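Hello again, I could really use a second opinion on something today. I've been staring at a protein lately and its backbone has me curious. Please have a think about how the structure follows from the sequence. I owe you a coffee for this, so here goes:
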Amino acid sequence: MRGPIDPTQYFAPPRRCDQTQRTTTSAAYLESVSMSHLAKILASSNSKLASVLNESKIDPIRLVAASHEIEALRPEDKQIKREKKAAAGKDDDAAKAARSKKPRSGRPVTERLVTDALAGKPVSGPAKNRVLRAVNAVRAQKKLAAVELKQLF
């Protein structure tokens, strides 16, 4: 029988290179690949969304990150869903109040959605609203005024 297993053995990098060099290189490489891809699309696009992002100096990667933070399901959203399910067949005031609340979607903006929106491809209504929330969140961080949906699409 062997002793306890050391978990670092399974996740350790190969011994032929320095661990810090490997992680910084791979992280920088991944960031540069995704940044250059979306930056090329943003630079070559002439859609309304692209003009707002260029005017505000917003990187499309920030939209993805902001949306992940905004749209993530939280315990209160799960509580709203439970209350809606419990009030399904009832017609009293408490049931109507439970049905009127809306939880977060849980579906953030993805890189593919951003590329489609920048390219001018058709985007669904809920996806447009998610992009709008992400753009307004980033604009709020930069202390800029919020935009409307008609200005983006």
About this structure: Residues 92 and 98 are 10 Å apart (CA to CA). The chain is about 65% helix and 0% strand.
